[in-house]
C-alpha cells in the first residue's frame, strides 16, 4: 500500500440531513495504511455544518482548517475560524462538545485527525442523544463493533432494576 495520498485524490462521500447538515467526507487513514489514528478530509458547503454538536468521552480529535472560514462551537462558546487554524477537541464532557459551522458563502475544507480507541461514548448535547461503541471507534468500520447503541438519555435506573 502506498503511504501517501494527495488531497485531490481523496474519494469523498456526500452526506446530507435536513436543511442544516451537509458535507463531503473522505477517509484518508485507510487509504494509506493508517492504524492508530483516523484522518479524513471534510468539505462543508456554504451555510452548512457537517455533523451534530457532540463530545467524545474517550477519543480526541484535531481539526486543521485548509480553506474557507466559519465558526467552531466549543462548549458554550463560539470562535471564528479560518484557513491555517488548528483546533483541539480533547475527550471530556459537554464542555468539550464541538461543531464546525461554515458561516461563509464559500466551501470550508478541513482535515480531521482522531485517536481510534475502540470503546467510545459520544454525547450529543443539542438533542440529548448518546452513542456507545465497542470494538470499533467512530469513523472506523462498523462491522468491527461488538456492541453499538444510540439513544436518548433518560432517567437513571438502579443496578438491580429489571433483574
Summarize the SSE layout with pairings.
Elements: E1 13-17, E2 21-27, H1 29-32, E3 37-44, E4 55-56, E5 61-67, E6 69-74, E7 77-82, E8 86-89, E9 98-101, E10 108-115, E11 119-124, E12 129-134, E13 147-152
Antiparallel strand pairs: 1-2, 2-3, 3-10, 4-11, 5-8, 5-10, 6-7, 6-9, 11-12, 12-13
Structure in words:
- The protein has a domain at 7-117: Jelly Rolls (Sandwich).
- The longest helix has 4 residues, at 29-32.
- The strands form 3 sheets. The chain has a 6-stranded antiparallel beta sheet. It has a 4-stranded antiparallel beta sheet with strand order 4-11-12-13, with no helix packed on it.
- The N and C termini lie far apart (51 Å).
- By secondary structure, the protein is mainly beta.
- The model has no long low-confidence stretch (mean pLDDT 96).
- The chain is built from 1 helix and 13 strands, in the order E-E-H-E-E-E-E-E-E-E-E-E-E-E.
Q: How many β-strand stretches?
A: 13
Separate helix tally: 1
Structural class: mainly beta
Overall geometry: globular
At CATH level 2, the architecture of the domain at 7-117 is: Sandwich
The overall pLDDT, averaged over residues, is 96
Largest sheet: 6 strands, antiparallel
Q: Name the strands of the widest sheet in spatial order.
A: 1-2-3-10-5-8
* CA radius of gyration: 17 Å
- Our measurement of the CA-to-CA distance between the termini, rounded to an integer number of angstroms, reads 51 Å
* CATH evolutionary superfamily of the domain at 7-117: Jelly Rolls
- In N-to-C order, the SSE pattern is EEHEEEEEEEEEEE
Which percent range fits the helix content? Answer: under 10%
CATH class value of the domain at 7-117: Mainly Beta
This entry's quaternary arrangement is single chain
CATH topology of the domain at 7-117: Jelly Rolls
Low-confidence stretches: none
Percent of residues in beta strands: over 45%
